[in-house]
Amino acid sequence: MTFLDEIEACLPSLRRYAFALLRNRDAADDLVQDTLERALSRRHLWRGEGPLRAWLFRILLNRFRDDRRRGRASLTVVGVMVEPAVSGGQDERLDLREVHEAMGRLPADQRAALLLVGLEGMSLAEAARILELPEGTLASRLGRARAELRTMTGRSGPRGERKAAEP
Amino acid sequence: MPELDDAALLALRHGSAADKARLERMAEGDPALRERLAEWDRQDAALHALYDPVAEEPLPERLTAALARPAAPSPRMWRFAAMLAPLAVGIALGWGAAHWTGDGAGGADSLLASAIRAHDTYVVEVVHPVEVPASDEAHMTKWLSKRVGQQLAVPDLTANGFHLVGGRVLPDTRGAAALMMYEDDQGQRLTLYIAPEPRQPETALRFADKGPTRGVWWVEGDLGCAVVGDLPKDRLKAVATLAYDQLTGA
User: Fold this and answer.
1) Between residues 83 and 102 of chain A, which touch chain B (CB distance below 8 Å)?
2) What number is the ipTM of this complex?
3) What fold characterizes domain A86-157?
4) Which domain holds residue B47?
5) Do B66 and A33 touch (CB under 8 A)?
6) What is the C-alpha separation between A124 and B16, in angstroms, rounded?
7) Residues B162-214 pLDDT 10s
8) Do A15 and B133 touch (CB under 8 A)?
9) What residues does each domain of chain A span?
């Protein structure tokens, strides 16, 4: 696989991640395009150390932080269309719209962290390298994010005592 | 066993295979922990249900277009190309245009028609316009020469603003043909198509139009060459002349 092929193979997950992070289609593709252009212009700096995917995610997150610092991506959550993939969410499934809204209310650093492991399936070690955080710090951040999410999606009953829904 | 906090549990859950196995064993005798793990599973399942569809969409054009601009080739490579160019074969004059443009006996099999077909097929390819990239030019030259059956040169067209993207082998009615693709800084692409043309009289440069795609072609030795692109006639002729001069060692 050439460098470009490898980048192309990463694009679907970069787009998924960017959308989940920014919650706006155009802003997400702007961010991915920015990432892509930056990666291509810096390809001579990439020496094949570590997976290309991690390198791309690191660039994307750096761009994301820069944009936020400049106040460009102000994370407006307006009119995002979400088609729930399952209808009639039963007890074993969370309400998707609720989860989407809750994700939007998480602090951005928690959302960025949770999406790396929960959505992109990265290990704690891999995500910590991308976010340039100690693993312990990231684990705490994930703990807070998941607890917040649970609270906001109505699953905040005392730990472990929550029973299946009453009939 | 001391109770682990969420951070420690998550470190196991998103840790190594051994960490995950350990967590599973811990959960076996601990319903509260099982419920906590199940909640995290539900969260992840919800994230996938919400956002996976984005990953399944076709890539938007602006992203594939961004991928289509390879980095500029290094100057060293061009010196190599310039060294190779004089290896190409000689040329003489004279042929009937009808054969080439697909209007005459040659029909759709004519050299120019094949070249235009190849150009139209690959010019739109953003990710895989070529099989061997310009970065591997030495290998490409050897490979194309071997398949076409003659020593080929890769013309250096930078004087006209075009750098090599790479090359590929294509089937042609007369045998294996070579395609070399070039691109300028605006992303405008140009195809150089070289196919075996045994027992054909040699020609000077000839020009033909087919819609927006224009081509300049010639025969030299046992090879037919065509330069095809959606370029203004003058620019195409200039770049074809440059290719011709280098391929014929003029």
Assistant:
1) 83-86, 92-94, 96, 99-100
2) 0.84
3) Arc Repressor Mutant, subunit A (1.10.10)
4) 6-56
5) yes
6) 9
7) 999 999 999 887 788 999 999 988 888 999 999 988 777 777 788 877 667 78
8) no
9) 1-73, 86-157
